[in-house]
Amino acid sequence: MKRFDPVTQAKVDLTAALRLAARMNLHEGVCNHFSMEVPGNPQLFLINPQGLHWSEITPGDIVTVDAEGNVVDGKHKVERTAFFIHSRIHVIKKKKVVLHTHMPFATALTLLDGGELDLRANQNAMRYYGRIGYDRDYGGAAFDTDEGDRIANSIGDADIVFMQHHGVLVCGTNMAYAFDDLYYLERSCMVQVLAQSTGGKLKQVSVEQAKYVADQIGGDRQQSVLHFEALKRLLDRDEPGWSKL
C-alpha cells in the first residue's frame, strides 16, 4: 500500500475512516464528523466537509481548519457543529483524533435513563474499562463555543464519551486505534442491546477480570493497526479511486 508524506497520509486515513464508517452503517446522512490534528501542527486540524456523503469523500475533499474555525486549506465549507465540537476537544483536551457519530446501537444506550455500556459482561466491552465517560447534560445542537467547551470539559480523562440523547465521541492518538475502538464500541453496544432484549440478566465477570482484559487488549494495539490496514485494502478492492488526491 502506497505511503505518503505525513499530512497527505493523514488525509488518506481520515478519508478511509469516513468511507469505512459509511460501509458499516455508523454514519447518519451527511451529518457527524471525524477530525485529526494536522501532523506537526497542533494548531490545525483536518475534518470532513459539509454536505458530502461519507461514501463519496476523497482526500482532496478534506478541509484544514484552525482553532478559530477558519478554513486554511480546502475547497469546501465546514458545518458549524463540527467546528464547535471538534475544535474545542482538540484545543482543550489535546486529542489527536476525534470521531463523533450517531451510530445506532451506541446511540440507543444514550437514550436510556442512566444507560451505560456494561464493561464486565462482554469481552469486547472490557477493553474500554476505565476509558469511558458520560455526558449526562444535553445542551442541544453545538452551535456556539460555550456548548463546545461544555462537551469538551465533560470528557475528563476518558477516551470514549456517551452523550445523553445524542451519540458518542471516540478519541485516540492515531486513526488506526480510534477507528478500531469505534468499530468495537458499536459491536459491544449491539450485543448488549440484543442480550438485554431477551429480558435476561447480564452475567458479569469480576472487576479484576475486566481490568485484566483491558490491560491485555490495551497493552498491544498491533491488532488495531492490522485491522485498519486490512480495511483499507478492502477499499482498494471495492472502491477504486477512493484515495485520489
Q: Describe it for me?
A:
By secondary structure, the protein is an alpha+beta fold. The protein has one domain: L-fuculose-1-phosphate Aldolase (3-Layer(aba) Sandwich). It is about 45% helix and about 15% strand. It has helices spanning about 5-25, 80-95, 105-110, 125, 145-155, 175-195, 205-220, 220-240; strands spanning about 35-40, 40-45, 65, 70-75, 95-100, 130-135, 160-165, 165-170. It has an 8-stranded mixed sheet with strand order 4-3-2-1-5-8-7-6, sandwiched between helices. Strand 1 (about 35-40) and strand 2 (about 40-45) form a beta hairpin. Helix 6 packs across helix 8. The chain is globular, with a radius of gyration of 18 Å.
The run of helices and strands is HEEEEHEHHEHEEHHH
Number of domains: 1
Q: What is the CA-atom radius of gyration, in angstroms?
A: 18 Å
Taking strands numbered 1, 2, ... along the chain, how are they ordered across the largest sheet? 4-3-2-1-5-8-7-6
Biggest sheet character: 8 strands, mixed
| Outline | globular
Number of helices: 8
- Name the CATH superfamily assignment: Class II aldolase/adducin N-terminal domain
Q: Hey, roughly how much beta strand do the residues contain?
A: 15-25%
Q: What is the end-to-end distance?
A: 15 Å
Helix content: 40-55%
CATH first level: which class? Alpha Beta
Tell me the total number of β-strands.
8
CATH topology-level fold name:
L-fuculose-1-phosphate Aldolase
The CATH level-2 architecture is identified as 3-Layer(aba) Sandwich
The structural class is alpha+beta
Mean pLDDT: 94
Give unreliable regions as ranges. Answer: none
